[in-house]
């Protein structure tokens, strides 16, 4: 583990390789799991503001869930998360003809229709940030649906922290990310010396 400011970063974030392989996983991280995407303070409001731009692109069952409970709900742990459809799909998912899942919010952002890309927990995935009383834990979540991303990351030699450069900077800042890069270089040098 490495400490940077008030964060404790798992070595997996530095040492594990990762590069999303949408052609293999088909966007499973948007449709698998026990609840919706975790939301930070203010993100539910951002979702509500972006909703009119993506409304017509959402499936009817997703629109019905949003009509009934809104864009978010409190999960079993009491955390605010995005609403889901049929116990699994995020309400903001869209499906391409080949069955690949895409985020309607991200598409609208990339087309310049919104200023909010998507929740930071989605942008950071597979990194998960857990807030404790005195520090934040930064861990790499590993599960079978992301195995193709680990394989591609290994083939290309891309560490998870490099793949996630932009969202990590959005979450923690440039100075924090620079410190993470320095820590990664130190860890690499130590590994070479062994």
Strand adjacency order, main sheet: 1-2-10-9
Shape: globular
- What fraction, in percent, of the residue positions are helical? 40-55%
Low-confidence stretches: none
Whole-angstrom Rg: 18 Å
Order of helices and strands: EEHHHHEEEEEEHHEEHHHH
Structural class: alpha+beta
Number of strands: 10
Beginning-to-end CA distance, first to last residue: 18 Å
Assembly state: single chain
Domain count, please report it: 2
Q: How many DSSP H or I helices?
A: 10
Major beta-sheet overview: 4 strands, mixed
Mean pLDDT: 91
What is the strand content?
15-25%
Word description of this protein:
- By secondary structure, the chain is α+β, with helices and mostly antiparallel strands.
- The protein has 2 domains: about 1-20 and about 125-194, no CATH class; about 25-115, no CATH class.
- The chain contains 10 helices and 10 strands.
- It has helices spanning about 10-15, 20-25, 45-55, 60-70, 105-110, 120-125, 145-155, 160-165, 165-170, 175-194; strands at about 1-5, 5-10, 70-75, 80, 85, 90, 95, 100-105, 125-130, 135-140.
- The protein has a 4-stranded mixed beta sheet. A two-stranded antiparallel ribbon has the order 3-4. It has a two-stranded antiparallel ribbon with strand order 5-6.
- Helix 9 packs across helix 10.
- The model has no long low-confidence stretch (mean pLDDT about 90).
- Pfam families: DUF3109.
- Belongs to the Rv0495c family.
